[in-house]
Design a protein that fits this description.
The protein has 306 residues and is an alpha/beta fold. It is 41% helix and 22% strand.
């Protein structure tokens, strides 16, 4: 029996990964959810293995699904490149992952810059933890990721540094003994930098509250549960105040990571835009809401991770 991997089902597979589910993928492709599901079943029939499995109330890719996803991206890239070589226009999508630390202030400006620098691409952002973004890069679910921390990895292009600030509730009083910290769950570059900074200055500290998302960190700090280290481009989160009675932390390096096989020009355009924004230093002077971009924004398609 002849088996083929058709372009339309492969595009649906990539859309499910990029959009975070069947329903959003259907909307992105202007198809019904049933049509997207049928495309996935056709791919499963072609390779004879399940690609997607139930996971709680949602679904996730099987190892075979992750493997085919990586192949699908390369197949579609070559397919679209072939069409463009004959003057046929195709829509390209670049998925950029970011942690929440820089998302609120950086991504809206980045989206605006990329409209001019990648005019043939639709830009979609994914907000997630650093570990999940690294997994997404390896699996081909995202194309680029803005990640904190030093690295010698050849896939990473250093673009600048994020200044860090201590924040607390206006009514919080620094204890005479151990300083309680509010932090993201481990592993987290900000968490490590906070603990290391206080330890280097001989200040006892302990984690008093943990959260998986920035909103949880800010809520715990606002409730007076401790002090937190954040990257906010000078815009204090609502209800919080900067603390200058704690040791000034060193900034954290920021790098743009690219997945294997991504066109070099795309990565260079994104890295250059991020570097320009950081070098300009004008983000803090602008009033930018301290919320992540809306999923309904026409300029930014956002899929929030857990």
């Amino acid at each position: 029996m002849s088996r083929t991997l058709d372009i339309a089902p492969l595009r649906s597979l990539v859309a499910v990964a990029d959009c975070g589910g069947f329903q959003r993928a259907a909307g992105s492709l202007h198809l019904s959810q049933g049509a997207v599901s049928q495309h996935i079943r056709r791919l499963e029939a072609a390779i004879g293995r399940p690609l997607v499995e139930r996971h709680g109330r949602g679904s996730r890719f099987t190892p075979d699904g992750e493997q085919l996803l990586s192949h699908a991206r390369r197949i579609l890239a070559l397919h679209d490149e072939s069409l463009r070589s004959f003057g046929v226009e195709t829509e390209l999508t670049v998925v950029i992952g970011s942690t929440e630390h820089a998302a609120a202030q950086l991504l809206p400006h980045l989206a605006t810059l990329l409209e001019g620098r990648l005019p043939d691409h639709r830009v979609r952002f994914r907000i997630d933890r650093g570990a999940a973004l690294r997994e997404g890069l390896a699996a081909g679910r995202i194309d680029l990721a803005l990640l904190l921390g030093r690295t010698d990895d050849p896939r990473a292009v250093p673009v600048g540094e994020l200044e860090l600030t201590w924040y607390a509730s206006p009514t919080w009083t620094r204890p005479a003994s151990t300083v309680p910290l509010v932090a993201f769950d481990d592993p987290c570059a900000l968490r490590s930098r906070a603990l290391d900074t206080l330890a280097d200055h001989g200040i006892p500290a302990e984690i008093g509250a943990e959260a998986t998302q920035l909103a949880g960190v800010q809520a715990a700090v606002g409730a007076g549960l401790g002090v937190a280290l954040m990257a906010t481009f000078g815009q204090a989160p609502e209800g919080l105040v900067a603390r200058e009675d704690l040791p000034a932390p060193a900034p954290l390096p920021l790098a743009v990571w690219a997945r294997h096989g991504l066109a070099a020009g795309v990565g260079q355009a994104v890295a250059g835009a991020v570097r320009e924004l950081l070098d300009a230093g004008g983000l803090a002077a602008e009033v930018v809401p301290l919320v992540t971009p809306s999923a309904e924004s026409p300029a930014i398609r956002l899929a929030r991770g857990a």
